[in-house]
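Annex B. Sample input.
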Amino acid sequence: MIRISTIFIAICMVLVAASLGLVLYSVAGISGTESAIVALTALTFLILYNAVSMRLRDRTDVGGQIADLSRGTADLARQVAEFGRRLAAIEGRIASSNSTNSDRIQSVVGEINELGGLVRQLAATVSTHEDLLAGGAPASAPAEKPDLKPDLDAPIDLIATADERPAAPPPLPVALRPAPPVQTANPVQTAGGRNQTQLLATLRNAIDENRVDIFLQPMVTLPQRKVRFYEAVTRVRDEREQLIAAEEFISIAEASGLIGRIDNMVMLRCVQVLRRLMVRNKDVGVFCNVAASTLGNSTTFAQCLDFLEANRALAPSLVLEFKQSTFRGLGPVETENLAALAQRGFRFSIDHVTDLRIEPRELADRGVRFIKVPASLLLDPKQTSTSDIHPSDLSDLLGRFGIDLIAERIEGERAVVDLLDYDVRFGQGFLFAPPRPLRPEGASATGGAAPNQAQDIQGSNGSASTNPGATSGAAPSQRITGNAALARRI
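Annex B, continued. Sample output.
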């Protein structure tokens, strides 16, 4: 349909051409034929000019519309891709949830069946005991009634079952009555024959007398096996210069409030060791374990923060390590203190990982740059159904958020081969090297261990074989000092 503006323009062009011819005929004295020719020529020129201008304007409008349509199509494509990604993620979660629920249902069904068998066995046992007791078993012949002896594997005690009968049964024979519990002087024993009270006293004396050592265990790159980091493992020496492993005293130290002092001493030694290591290699790093109670104690944490602030230049190489349970149980105070450390440039690591339900984005936002997972957990086929991601894809997923995966507790070459298929970049374990003592300036980290004793220490269990002839007063010529000691020990 012709637009009104087009009709108006056409009428105007005809009027202009006719007016031009009329002016030429009446004013210039040109003949009528010539005036008509000039008028038609002017009309043709106007028509051509209008057509060209309209074509250019339409082309500009069409170009703008095409550009808008292209942008809209691109936005639509992005939205469709995003919807597709979300749908795939939802389907994956649904499949994983269904698999997990199926495994849990099977486990519950198995437990119910086992419980049913135990209940039937218990009912038969109770019925037998009631029949025997109702028949009046003679007290002088307990050996002829072997079924009356308490079953140590039964889920319910025989005496408790007899007491629950509605009618009072005859008294049990003396041979069938339960013996009183044996009282012991030290109900809870620890390694080395110490109870908790003795271990706590030993721990206090060790802290007061500066007998807290650190052992270093390397973390290597895979498959090159080049040392990249060291983990500081805490050991405590008692009065007889015997080492106590961390797993033996950590729980007691946390319960008694001594863990903050231990963390301060270990942190100081880690900084000293790191400065010595960086003299020869700038790319080396040290992992320093920090307890959850230290992170939540305002007084202890303030001391640690002041010390770390003074050594802020070492932040890229000093990694603070926390347990997975610590990160999952962060409160407002712990979260604020963790953020204060992250603001000063310190990086974090997570160890004692018990499952692979990991949120890498949340951990990366909190400053986590390393996650240590036991090799047995990574290679466990059951983790495929219980975790949100296949273990072989965990390293790639963590890498997208700037987190490195470290496989720890590696004890065999077979595990290394399997972990390489999982694209694990770092490894730690007894296969590469056990934790070993460090003796700066010719002595142990605390200045009290004998040289031969430090050499005889093997593994991370804190056991040591003491040489009777080795004393802390050995001649200086028999000791290796400075960086030479570091190179010898590590």
